[in-house]
Amino acid sequence: MKKIVIALVALLAGIGPVSAQKIGYINTEDILKRIPAYVTAQNQLEVLSDKYKASIEAEFGKIETLYQEYQASKSSMSMSQRQNAENEIISKERVAQEKQKIYFGEDGIMAKKAEELLSPIRKAVEKAIENVARTGGYDMVIDVAALQGVVYKNKALDLTDQVLVNYLENQN
After folding, report:
1. Distance CA 29, CA 39 (A)
2. What's the CA angle centered on 55, arms 48 and 89, to 5 degrees?
3. Is 9's pLDDT higher than 90?
4. How far is CA 106 from CA 39, 81, 102, in A?
5. Would you give the distance in Å from CA 37 to the centre of its chain?
6. CA dist., res. 5 & res. 68, Å (int)
7. What pLDDT is attached to residue 148?
8. What is the mean pLDDT of the chain?
9. Rounded to the nearest 10 degrees, what angle do helices 36-73 and 79-104 cross at?
10. In angstroms, how far is CA 59 from the centroid of its own chain?
11. Are 116 and 44 in contact (CB under 8 A)?
């Protein structure tokens, strides 16, 4: 992230003297928080995530209970009974981990659902950013939500509200 900021500063410093550049900034986090469809989608994802987390936690809780029971009684078990109990615990743990991956993995249900619900909104916001930039003659629009360490922003260059208005106008 530090490299991006340094590269951006270097880029801006390098192109400044050549010609006047028109630059603005936005805050995508602020824009998205103010879009009702995005907030609704986020809430749906949170409910679904909580449901899947509860399911996974319940399975791991059962495994923990099974393990505790095994620990308490393993001294009275034969070697084959111990092996069977250990294999059962390991097997159930693998199943729970696989289920966790199915729900929360990179290509899991949650990732696909997030893509399905949020991608159209993000694409429309990107289009609104492009429209505002083109209409206003901006050469560059920076997303301050993506940059850490922004210590000063001139409010006159903030295009966030314009992007939100453009987005809302194009949704009707």
Report:
1. 11
2. 150
3. no
4. 22, 38, 9
5. 16
6. 51
7. 82
8. 89
9. 180
10. 25
11. no
